[in-house]
């Protein structure tokens, strides 16, 4: 297998930022999901609620060497906004059911109001990823991340995506619907994208080594309505959730790709060899 794509998401729910190489830290890829939007009560606001967040391009020096500050925000019709690392006191924020702390960047308030049409949005920065513990039963002592949904890194397979797109086409034809365009892998917002194995071989992975960096596989990645949003048109549809519910249901949740935790650090690059250790007793979703 080979690593064919690397993606960093400096702003949670912001535009996917493809990079040729990335530094792997204990918390995940450098700068991945280090920033997020919250409402006036400190609760996460993602593209689930504010679809236009997908059109906000957030870059850091890790995704664009021309960025000289901590973060640069871009959106259609607006001037770029350059931000330094915020230095105010941390505030309480909510990431789903998790109570965390983050540092606000109030300089972004007006820009966000124009970009997203909401005056209640606040940008916050994860100043201490070690505060964020991971899901018990699927993590080890000391595992941590920033504002990712659940685990530091996700890895998706193009072979699996091709199979999923075949299933989606079959389902559409069964229902007498217009044949859809294949879904792009970006719809799943994975950090690592690989190719060269069998479809859904990742169900059997226990660990993955990319170049010289090793990752422990935690669990299959559950999927929500976020995957039904077209990042270009911002419209929503039934897929891929409708088809995943038929073929990729595990514990009552639709799954695609797998979540991982770094066991070592280092630099990885597109083109790196990917080697997987296989479980002796895999538990695979129905398909």
UniProtKB/TrEMBL annotation:
Superkingdom, taxonomy of origin: Bacteria
Signal sequence range = none
What SUPFAM superfamilies does UniProt report for this protein, alphabetically? MOSC N-terminal domain-like (SSF141673), PK beta-barrel domain-like (SSF50800)
Record-annotated MOSC domain positions: 121-277
Q: Which residues cross the membrane?
A: none
**What name is this protein filed under?**
MOSC domain-containing protein
Q: Which organism is it from?
A: Nocardioides renjunii
